[in-house]
Amino acid sequence: MTEEIKFEIGEKYENMKGEFEVLAIRRDSMDIRWEDGEEISTPIDLQKRIIERMRFEEELEITRAAQKIKKAKASSSKGGKHFTGLEATDFSNTVSKTTWRGRGQLGGAVALRLKNKQFKFNSWAVLRKPEVTWIDIVRQKQPDLKLQAKFYARVEDKSFYFGVHIPAPDPAGTEMSDWHALMAWLEKPENNSWLNKQCTSHNLYLSDLSKEGFSGKVEAEKEKWVNRVPDKKDVPVKSLSAFLTVAGKSGAIDLRIEKQMKKDATIEKKQTIASDMATLFETLMPVYAGAADRNT
Predict the structure, then answer these.
(1) CA distance 126 to 95
(2) Could you please report the per-residue DSSP string of 111-146?
(3) What is the tens place of the pLDDT at every residue in 209-254?
(4) pTM recorded for the entire structure
(5) Nearest one of 106, 133, 105, 104 to 121, comparing CA atoms
(6) From start to end of 3-94, where are the E strands?
């Protein structure tokens, strides 16, 4: 509770203008002098109200700051802390009665484990799809969100997929996007070679979820690339960037660089799947950074 303000001669107080000393007190007014020497006669009630308002605003600011800190601590403590692993009921083509995508579950568990100096990630569940994405919180606020590169995880009836997603824009468009930046990044031999090694080491492949640009999978094989389509002959890919550029011109390609796990193997991982995912995302961070850099 705020103390009642009582003015006394010779004592110092502070109002909006600064610190002042009380020189004389009369019935309803008093004479005061500020530190710069200026003296005035002022109503006592007016100065009381001014000081009371200043104290109230200060106390309110302190309360708000404490609440903000408390809320931030509560949010960080909840993020992913309740995630114990994916369950059999999570493997569905719908999101009805599932919670695994939330920030208190897998979404938050992976976000907590992503440590990067260039980007700060949070998770967002994809509307009406059994999929969750992780995006840099600054980039997520930009208007081209739909076409941004993002890390993701999605489920189907029998499998779990996670990796990096780079959607292609409308081929008729003229604006630069993450897709164009990634194509420029892949044109550099050292980047192409690095990605090939990562795909080999981590059992990753490239796919087009829309199937408008290409079918099957593009896989790394003996430091080269090959397009494999079920029941068809393997097709060597001489240049990955050229292959993807052509694919991107044919339609709204939905490029995924991903790892696939069987349902049972994913469930057996329990909560450690979040650590495995964060490790892979950090490994693939150069791809995300390359797509995010429009000056590549």
Answers:
(1) 10
(2) HHH---SS--EEEEEPTTSSEEEEEETTGGGSTTGG
(3) 999 899 999 999 999 999 999 999 999 999 999 999 999 987 779 9
(4) 0.72
(5) 133
(6) 12-15, 18-25, 29-34, 39-43
